[in-house]
Sequence to fold (231 residues):
Amino acid sequence: NAGVTQTPKFQVLKTGQSMTLQCAQDMNHNSMYWYRQDPGMGLRLIYYSASEGTTDKGEVPNGYNVSRLNKREFSLRLESAAPSQTSVYFCASSDRRGGDGRNQPQHFGDGTRLSIL
Amino acid sequence: AQSVTQLDSHVSVSEGTPVLLRCNYSSSYSPSLFWYVQHPNKGLQLLLKYTSAATLVKGINGFEAEFKKSETSFHLTKPSAHMSDAAEYFCVVSADTGGFKTIFGAGTRLFVKA
Fold:
């Protein structure tokens, strides 16, 4: 009953270092998302993948890249970390449409807490 | 265009008293609306969703929300608060159009006093 799994749970980086956040889902969802959460700002979409093989920019894509490795996995990469990227990062997945044609809710991982010094 | 406004950043109630968390939205299209709860150091968990089948939506843990189109509101309520309800709550709007757009409110922190 794993749902959405994110690794690592915590990470501290120095400015300029690079790293990749991993996300995997076992619900056979087509769509996957990366968000960042900052105090008082809710969640902001970084990138999303509507289906395997496609990725698109969200609201705050600068400084990030993504890879939809297969249907299960969607990774987020910081090429050169900056202190402004200190945040909690959440991965989510969903089926876009339900049987009623309505957007389906997203299922979230427990987050990666990233600090950049 | 879409937006969502959670009218209170913090709400404090006593255990056993009613909970009201307010959410107003705007959407150019027929929206789907959701409420999520986030406990400390956890991801967001779906409480309930509105998808036009009924204006009063019942969710998990005794929560419910009423969709009021005339007021563009989707307030979350619970008749009697429990200590375990202390968490942050997010109202979310998602447009049912060909494109993708999901907007999260800034969140309301619920405190429950013994």
User: Anything to note?
Assistant: Chain B touches chain A through 24 residues (CB under 8 Å).
